[in-house]
Structure to design on (517 residues):
């Protein structure tokens, strides 16, 4: 150290060599001296190698090669993503084997690799009929759902795999079990809600509500309806976030579900009073009717079963067996003769007049009690708001229908639930065609009024004579669609083509081409 040159800062001869960098450092003041370890390498292409740079290494200070580091980082990405998605050890191995089958055991690196791993995880889960929302995978890999979907299609095409159809019933079963909103619900109630939800889901399949739609919003809508039906307080926003679906779409599916139930309630005696607003209170009776209707095996007139037929024998028998009726005088062969009689002949019932009078008086007492309760409920508005028809039928759900269990599509379509509905898109298309048809009629009248004013005035006068009660004139607003329809009518386009609503194609075919020619 005494023979070392002096420090450039403190001028002391206390310089030592740093073996990592090869520089001189003063042990007294810690100042690094100027660069003085230059080594001249003399030679050509076959000369000596560099001091710190070596081919095949990942950089200074690392003992692993580039290939080993790439594999290590790729495995870390796979493990992190599998942990976020909550996959089991067996599923993680399947995901790794699928990745190695596609890109080899060296894996890859870059922004595309996490998206590729997420696509493989989705394919593995979907292949085994397991639920893994694509939106959840997209959030885990920080990419767009459409980008992930394109990667999934590429993976499926590469391995030549045909994914099974989406099982919406299994999706509902797994959703009701893993949603945190239903974590505090008892197991018995979960079982009851599960049967009701499966029944409603398969009814929606029969009504074509799930056709061409995303399945998870339908699952969320049924979850909300079944929860409200069983007095479980949940919010549609919470369920939608837990299932990774859009809230607005869930609200539309919920509205379609209630509209179908209102349509099924039309056959009931009070069906005209059932609306979307009060369907929840009438849902027990409506679902009970649908359940009993689905259990009908034959629909022939000779063997048809009237589901709401009164059991006269059981009713009268129960009344006669009550306390106070045993001592009444009846004929000895009352029960035997009654059991042999048909319900269509009530005059042959062998019941004494005293028994009938007691039954009738008991019936009047029950009616008066019901009226008294009704008067009390009308006085208390708050209790009337909380009134629920389920109190009158506490055990309305039986769960004996086959629709409460998972069925194939053919069996679902063969069932009769009291309503044969068309797809919602078809209904909306029919309504749109009807509106366009009315617009075409109005456009023809406006064109006729301009081209022939005399006939238009006469028609207007005759219309005023027929509708003298209408004093105020209705003002009709004309929008862009009316102007397009008028233009197409003036170019002799058929009304059937205009009703379809393909305005761009019709304008290009009949208007702009004729102008160019």
């Amino acid at each position: 150290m005494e023979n070392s040159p002096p420090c450039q800062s403190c001028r002391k001869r206390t310089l030592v060599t740093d073996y990592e960098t090869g520089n001189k450092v003063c042990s007294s003041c810690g100042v690094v001296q100027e660069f003085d370890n230059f080594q001249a390498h003399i030679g050509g292409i076959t000369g000596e190698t560099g001091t710190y740079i070596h081919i095949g290494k990942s950089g200074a200070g690392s003992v692993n090669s580039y290939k080993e580091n790439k594999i290590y980082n790729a495995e870390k990405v796979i493990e992190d993503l599998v942990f976020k998605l909550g996959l089991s050890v067996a599923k993680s191995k399947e995901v790794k084997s699928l990745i190695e089958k596609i890109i080899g055991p060296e894996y890859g690196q870059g922004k595309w690799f996490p998206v590729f791993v997420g696509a493989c995880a989705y394919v593995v889960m979907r292949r085994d009929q397991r639920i893994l929302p694509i939106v959840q995978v997209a959030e885990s890999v920080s990419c767009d759902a459409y980008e992930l979907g394109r990667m999934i299609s590429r993976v499926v095409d590469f391995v030549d795999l045909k994914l099974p159809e989406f099982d919406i019933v299994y999706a509902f079963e797994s959703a009701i079990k893993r949603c945190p909103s239903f974590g505090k619900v008892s197991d018995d109630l979960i079982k009851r809600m599960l049967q009701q939800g499966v029944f409603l889901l398969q009814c929606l399949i029969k009504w074509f509500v799930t056709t061409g739609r995303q399945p998870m919003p339908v699952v969320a809508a049924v979850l909300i309806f079944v929860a409200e039906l069983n007095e479980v307080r949940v919010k549609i926003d919470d369920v939608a976030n837990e299932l990774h679906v859009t809230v607005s779409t869930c609200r539309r599916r919920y509205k379609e579900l209630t509209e179908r139930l209102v349509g099924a309630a039309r056959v009931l005696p009070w069906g005209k009073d059932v609306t979307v607003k009060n369907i929840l209170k009438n849902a027990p009776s409506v679902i009970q009717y649908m359940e009993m209707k689905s259990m009908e095996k034959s629909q022939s007139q000779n063997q048809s079963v009237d589901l709401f037929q009164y059991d006269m024998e059981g009713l009268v028998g129960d009344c006669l067996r009550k306390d106070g009726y045993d001592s009444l005088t009846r004929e000895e062969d009352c029960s035997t003769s009654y059991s042999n009689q048909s319900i269509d002949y009530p005059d042959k019932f062998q019941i004494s007049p005293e028994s009938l009078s007691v039954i009738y008086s008991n019936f009047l007492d029950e009616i008066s009690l019901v009226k008294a309760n009704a008067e009390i409920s009308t006085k208390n508005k708050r209790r009337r708001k909380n009134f629920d028809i389920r109190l009158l039928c506490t055990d309305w759900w039986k769960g004996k229908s086959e629709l409460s269990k998972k069925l194939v599509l053919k069996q679902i379509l063969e069932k009769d639930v009291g309503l044969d509905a068309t797809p919602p898109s078809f209904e909306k298309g029919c309504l749109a065609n009807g509106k366009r048809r009315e617009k075409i009629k109005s456009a023809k009248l406006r064109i006729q009024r301009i081209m022939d004013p005399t006939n238009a005035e006469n028609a207007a006068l005759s219309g005023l004579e027929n509708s003298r009660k209408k004093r105020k004139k209705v003002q009709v607003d004309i929008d862009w669609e009316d102007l397009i329809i008028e233009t197409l009518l003036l170019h002799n386009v058929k009304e059937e083509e205009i009703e379809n609503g393909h305005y761009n194609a019709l304008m290009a075919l009949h208007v702009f081409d004729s102008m160019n020619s």
In short: The CA atoms of residues 17 and 419 lie 92 Å apart. The chain is about 55% helix and 0% strand. The two ends are 101 Å apart (CA to CA). The chain has a mean pLDDT of 77.
